[in-house]
Model the fold of this input.
Amino acid sequence: MKIICIGRNYADHAKELNNPVPERPIIFMKPPTALLVNDKPLYYPEFTKDLHYEAEIVLKIARNGRHIQPEFAAEYYDEVALGIDFTARDLQAELKGKGQPWELAKAFDGSAAISPFIPVSELPDPDAIEFRLAKNGETVQHGNTRDVIFSFNDIIVFVSQFFKLQMGDYIYTGTPAGVGPVKIGDTLKGEIFTKTGPKPLLTCEIK
Ligand code: MG
Done:
């Protein structure tokens, strides 16, 4: 399986990091070894002094496809989860400054926290998924996918021109404003708002 991630997909987050709003999706990938399943701690990596959380809605690809047309894109996922795209922000800045790829800062072991998946049918509006991340009990990110620059369907259409999507692939769809650092001892908890209210899905302690 592969983990495809979208950078800067919310204008307010692009702004907070002083990045321009992209004209096409910014794509990077993480290897399967980056996955951090729910309730597993993340051990603070030694190569960074500025580890950041980025809460994101994650799609699970339900069928194989390439060159997917817009009218069929929605058929390629039927479950979503809450994920955290952990980022070594200091290392990323250094790599960006040198015009180098981001993998060292984004694709390290444990950098892709993932909650259990829930069916899209549990959501009040699949085009406006509300989600929240709290650090040590205080809300730090509160996003809604209606604010994305590139919709889930846009992403599936774009990505599948380059990479065959396969059943079981994950797509991290970008983070809203409010990203920030974690330190050892912090606990992150994430929830997605379903038809019956906010559903706690993700817990991750930094060790
Ligand atoms: Mg991200």
